[in-house]
Amino acid sequence: MTVDLIMLCHNQLSYTKRAVESIIENTYQPVNRFWIVNNASTDDTKLYLSGLAENYSNVKVVNNRKNKGFVVANNEIMKRSKADVVVLLNNDIEVEPYWLHEMIVPFKKRKKVGITGPMTNISGEVMQMCEKDETESGIYCRASIAVPFFCSAISKKLIDDIGYLDTIFGMGYGDDGDYCIRTVKAGWDIIVCKGAYVYHYKMKTFKSIMSDDNINKTKRDAIELLKERYPDRYKKDISIAGITIVRNEQLIIRDTLDHFGQFCNGGIYVYDDASEDNTREICDNHPAVRQTIGRKEWTPDRYKRQGSLRQAVWDLAKQDADWILVFDADERIDFDFQNLVGYDAVCMKLFDFYITQDDIYKQWNEREWCGPEYREIPVLFRNNPDVSFKNKVRIPLFTGRVLFSGYIKHYSKALSVERWERDCDFYSGYDFPDRFKKKWSKRKGKAIHTKSDFGNDLMKWEDKEIRGFKLED
Fold first, then answer.
1. Residues 127 and 275 in one domain
2. Burial of residue 380 (number of CB atoms within 10 Å: 0-12, 13-18, 19+)
3. Per the CB 3.0–4.6 Å rule, which of 50, 75, 115, 195 could disulfide with 164?
């Protein structure tokens, strides 16, 4: 089986070098031709690619006088390729060893495989979220409907069957979703390869040639087009159910259910983990709660059991809902639910709020200060059959396109001094990992903050866009 690689680049030379070097170092599958398209770069890209072509006989450089965009430039090379499989690549990626081998295997084993894609990182657009040390060689799963084309292998037989990328999508965005839907409708499979890992830096070229306003307009236009083409896939009225695990949350649970109830028209499903206060009674009587389940006796293994507990309420919620929102009692979200078209999951930025000397006597939801650090947390998932909480604490295994949008106010550290001390005792004991125990043990007696737990100056919520930054693990 012959394979061609196709990579487009427009400036961003440092990313192109990083991508090419990782491909050369970590590709053990024979490559017939490595096409690199210079889409009218104005930096030293052309010179760099010329050197590559001299040193590697299978590298074929194409220099375009104008930037033809993702769709047209890829189509031109796909038409020129004679290979059995073409692999479309962005230039802001890094591949891990055996990535290509793992992505080619499904084409050899099954007749109707049209597209394959890798596992990838959460900080890029996701096919299946994972850490790279979680990959499993030789394990494959069918994607729910679409995989983004920052790294995707496409069968020449599929291209012969359904054609090329639709040029109506111009510079890009929406073309991959459209192509994947056409693939599935034509009876072909899309496969995620769990042994392949490709890191994606996400939209480096797009952001270098378009303003944020133009990018957002491009997205909106693409979504509207997809709505018109595939009304069965992009229906307007959606049902959203919520799931949560609670224990001894009577201080905040009514407000929590009021908040999430406004989004969850499909009801909220609660797992009560042996609460000793009035939490269960409040949940049972709240109008937004569809069903409460749980256990009467608590055991100190909740960290290990969270995946199975969430799976239990997920199984209840999935009966009728189109989407399922996974939340904790101490969270509040800010998100436009009209933006779900074309995606399979939503990842929001979570910021921690703190108690300060200025607001120590205020209610928890009146706290004004939060840390500038945020974590990207997947919280909203299309109700696809492949979603599973197996071996996960909060974040399930899932496949598909992820929208990075919205915010989470996380009040766990801001509820009260008493709650802070209780959490310190809880997280520094029981069955939590050692890193959790050490971290929370050191925090005991330090509920009042002048800086975040990560040593940074606190900020007001309205400054999150200016001062917020991603917390690196």
1. no
2. buried
3. 75
Kindly tell me the number of DSSP H helices and DSSP E strands found in the chain.
14, 19
Write down the residue that tokens 């944020």 correspond to.
212
Instruction: Supply the CATH number for residue 80's domain.
Output: 3.90.550.10
- Residue 329 buriedness (CB in 10 A; 0-12 / 13-18 / 19+): buried
Which amino acid would we find at residue 144? S
Contact between 10 and 208 (Cβ < 8 Å)? yes
Q: Which tokens in the block code for residue 73?
A: 């430039």
- On whether both 129 and 264 belong to a single domain, the answer is no
What is the CA angle 184-189-191, rounded to 5?
Answer: 125
**Which two tokens mark 307?**
């995946």
Report the domain count for the chain: 3
Asked if residues 346 and 380 have their Cβ atoms less than 8 Å apart, the reply is: yes
Q: In this structure, how many other beta carbons lie within 10 angstroms of the beta carbon of residue 262?
A: 9
Which distant-in-sequence residues (6+ apart) come within 8 Å of 211 by Cβ? Answer: none
H or E segment and range at residue 246: strand 240-246
pTM value is 0.58
CA dist., res. 454 & res. 414, Å (int)? 15
Q: Is the pLDDT of residue 473 over 80?
A: no
**pLDDT exceeds cutoff 90 at 2:** yes
What DSSP designation does 471 have? P
Q: Which of 47-56, 127-136, 272-281 has the lowest mean pLDDT?
A: 127-136
Element (H, E) at 107: helix 99-109
Q: At what angle do helices 434-443 and 417-427 cross, to 10 degrees?
A: 150
Would you state the structure tokens that stand for residue 66, as one six-digit string?
Answer: 């104008």
CB neighbours of 6 closer than 8 A, spacing ≥ 6? 35, 37, 74, 77, 78, 81, 86, 87, 88, 89
Collapsing DSSP to helix, strand or coil, 383 comes out as coil
Q: Which residues contact 299 (CB under 8 A, 6 or more apart)?
A: none
Coil, strand or helix at 406: strand
- Backbone φ, ψ for residue 253 (5° rounding): -65, -35
- Cα separation, 40 vs 65, whole angstroms: 5
Cβ neighbours around 464 below 10 Å, total: 18
Contact 413, 353 (CB under 8 A): yes
CA distances from 1 to 31, 60, 163, 310, 398 (A): 10, 20, 20, 43, 30
Instruction: For residues 380 and 348, give the distance between their C-alpha atoms in angstroms, rounded to a whole number.
Output: 9
Residue 265 included in any domain:
yes
Question: What pLDDT is stored for residue 138 in this prediction?
Answer: 65
Do 288 and 362 fall into the same domain?
Answer: no
Distance CA 17, CA 237 (A): 45
Residues 337 and 306 in one domain: no
Model pLDDT for residues 324-362, shown as the tens digit of each residue:
999 999 999 999 887 677 788 999 999 999 999 988 888
Q: Region 28-33: what's the mean pLDDT?
A: 93
